[in-house]
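Action item from last week, closing it out:
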Amino acid sequence: MKARPGSVGWLWWHELRLLWFAMGSGKPGKARRRPGLAGLATIAVAWLALHGVAYVALRRLEGLAGAVEGDPRVLVAVSALLFGCMSFMLSSALKSCVLVLFERGDLDLLLSSPLSSHSIFAIRLVTVAVGTAALYLFFLTPFAHAGALLGHAGWLAVYPVLLGMGTVVACAAMLMTLGLVRLIGARRTRIVAQVIGAFAGASIFLLSQLFAHFSSSMETRAMQAFTQAFGANGVLGSGSPLWLPGRALLGEPIPVLGTILLAAAAFVFTARCTHRFFVHGLQQAASSGRAGRKPAGGLRFQFGHSLFTSVLLKEWRLIVRDPHLISQVALQLVYLLPLFFIIFRRGDFQMPAIAAGLTLLCSSITASLAWIVVSAEDAPDLLRLAPAPVSTIRLAKLASAVLPSLAIVALPLVWLVQRTPGAGLLVAFTVIGAVSSAALIVHWCGRPGSRSDYLARGKSDFLTSILEMCNSLSWGSLAWSLASLTGERSDRIIVAVSFSALAPLVTLVLSWCLRRPQA
């Protein structure tokens, strides 16, 4: 694209190139390159294959037009799909806002250039909106094209609707990020926004699990309430304004126009009315790396902690200071919440599932933390040359990965031991064994890496990832078998316990045989 340097079009093209290059690297701070020809060909083939799947699926649905136009359940389902997409959009938009405000590192240069700060904000906001809606356009436009070929041209409204939704969500995410900057500062905003994004993306899972664990009486009352609300004369009937997004996606002109106007109004409000607020947030973000003020009373050194405690606290502080790691580990913690609902509502009724779930999740969290503190150590040479026992340092590092998982499951384990002492103690045994084995596997076989490679650690260290998965599955199966044995004693369960007990031992022995040389 040929545009005058310094113009809005030139800046917009630059932002699109950065967005395109980010698809090739996917990691902030890494060298960016555009996707190769193989990647482009794969994306094109997948998109064309989606067209074929969409056409075949819609072709086989008889009476599609009548169902869409006459059945309110279709309208409710489409609207629920859009609301779910908006939840995931908010998650990705928050991460994009954190990226453009904090991770790019070009704010000082742009603000000191002759470019208008209003244009910079507007272009970056458009980039966040387009990046937020791009993935959903990729998956939903094939169905819109197939529907148009089958005579439903209104389905092409998926383009303005998804772009409008992406714009509204991007504006909300930007306002939320700037508001957090004003309230808690730029440095804390990075952490809070990452955690909020992780929870926003997992909210649909939590809601589905919450409804799945209703009791029969609660489920009956909920169904009666839903039937009344979604009835023809109910508050949430087909004529409710709540379903306007679904109507817009199905091609009704007025809802489509309303979506476009709402997106335009949100963009204008965010770009114009919060412009000075944006500049203030950028200034805080650009200066967030400055050193803190000198403490009152002079510099004081504290040497009261032992070596073990000092290393333990050092690892936890480094994790707390990294927003990306916090958001990714917190996303794993979200999946513990449905298990809490089961434990505190049904007691030991679902004991095998509870035992396996707690064991698997704790093993996964420990493996992630162990990779961070062991394989992604920032100064391994310094620790090796330190005048301190290497065994103490290694033990403290492994403890810093194991203790958080045990602290997380302490409350449900105490509850289980009080309700069913035998089964609760067996679950505690499998959890402790799983987290200890996960830390040892990373310590023995982990390949050195960087904390920025956390999401891609499976590609760079495939062997350790396979061993971690085998360890989690083997301990999870043992937990399931032992919990089943407390409720029913049969030859089949005893054989399952025997084989399940052998699997973790085999995994540990194999990991020891494949261990890497320790300095």
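Closing note: Confidence is low (pLDDT under 50) at residues 26-32, 64-70.
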